[in-house]
Amino acid sequence: QYHGQRWLALRKINKQGEVSNVAALPISYGNRFSLAVDQQDNVYWVNNAGDGIYKRAPGGEFALFVPFDNAIKVLSGNIGTRDYISTAALAIDRQGALYFEDVGHHVIFKVAQNGDVSHFAGTVLQSGDKDGAPGIGSLPSSDYFPLMIDANDNLYTGGQDAIRRIDTAGVISTPQLGWSSPVLSTFAIGNGVVYGFTAQAVIQTPLP
Fold this sequence. Notes:
- By secondary structure, the chain is mainly β.
- 3% of the residues lie in helices and 38% in strands.
- It has one helix spanning 68-74, and strands at 2-5, 9-13, 19-24, 33-37, 43-47, 52-56, 63-67, 90-92, 98-102, 107-111, 117-121, 148-149, 155-158, 163-166, 172-173, 186-190, 193-197, 202-206.
- A four-stranded antiparallel sheet has the order 4-5-6-7.
- Strand 9 (98-102) and strand 10 form a beta hairpin.
- The longest helix has 7 residues, at 68-74.
- The chain is globular.
- The two termini are 28 Å apart.
């Protein structure tokens, strides 16, 4: 298991609980970041004030893998697009594709293993709760919720009042969960269960 010590080092925790520094993190000044690790033990790192997504191969150092300029170019045909990307959430599917959510443009990008970037889900510059395919469905205007992935490679994101599912074709839906309307600060998914974190408690319900 890996842990990022903000602005300093990537740290690895082994099964015995021993902690070691394995690499220096790229220099950045944001206050939110995310790590993701693929099946080959490549580590991906992003910071909300950075210039892109960085990748570290086993035994190596971090190097820029996806410049955010490449993501901006994907959206360049849309009126009103910004000249920066706002993200601090990563996920990797079983085939090794990387996903990241841009809360400024309200879309999710997909990154192939060769680094090619494509618009995967959501409608550019349209926030909301509409279900549907890319260009139709909309994602919430929320403050850096995590991007989770299940055993079937469905993605999950959300806001304080709802969790959204994005299937492997980029179609957004809103699963009906077995809790009412808690105000979530964040959430996690594991072993077919959704865990919601509120100000008072951690709640859970089966993933439909």
